[in-house]
Amino acid sequence: MAGCAKRCKQGLVKFVLSLHKLITGTLKKDKIDDDFELSVVCHRPEGLDKLEAQSNFSKRELQVLYRGFKNECPSGVVNEDTFKQIYAQFFPHGDASSYAHYLFDAFDSAHSGSIKFEDFVMALSILLRGSVREKLTWTFNLYDINRDGYISKEEMTDIVRAIYDMMGKYTYPALKTDTPKQHVDAFFQKMDKNRDGVVTLDEFILSCQEDENIMRSLQLFENVI
């Protein structure tokens, strides 16, 4: 199960890298290994039958995931500090704390301050096996930091800067200070259909569906588990 835990951490990092490529427009049809791993929780779920009914995973798949989580995290939950420590291991040349914070909030749908096995399962169920609209809605909620139903330029700038901080100066040796702003401006030029300064969920979904690279990025996660 140590191998399962390692694969899950690698899978979570691959997800982050694909999101980064999606935002910066550098997404290509990369090969995604059949290893997927998250890391972290081994809280005893209420029942795998219930999770099977609520998610897009089979009972066997849930059992495999749960064994890995239980071995990796006997406490049953992961808090934000632990989540950040996991990310820091994979981005030694950058500061992953800000992006890890945003991603943690996206997984912590109940805003309880910790993530349980069920939280990861439901998020993975959407990202790997959900409909296009479900996947895009989850991604929209990641960017909608204050949960007001809109993505503002300030929110997108925070996310983009967090990604650049995480990737580190060695990944982008020639990065200029205004590069995140350029990406955000391009993002809003494409997605803010009515030019009101914010992006709604419908605008986000419509724009993503019109972009081949973005749609390809969603397909990268299919059949990973």
From TrEMBL:
PANTHER family: CALCIUM BINDING PROTEINS, KV CHANNEL-INTERACTING PROTEIN 1. One of its GO terms (biological process) is regulation of potassium ion transmembrane transport. Residues 95-130, 131-166, 179-214 form the EF-hand domain. One of its GO terms (molecular function) is transmembrane transporter binding. It is found in: Cell membrane. This is Kv channel-interacting protein 1-like. GO terms for cellular component: voltage-gated potassium channel complex. Belongs to the recoverin family. Its main location: membrane. Keywords: Calcium, Cell membrane, Ion channel, Ion transport, Membrane, Metal-binding, Potassium, Potassium channel, Potassium transport, Repeat, Transport, Voltage-gated channel.
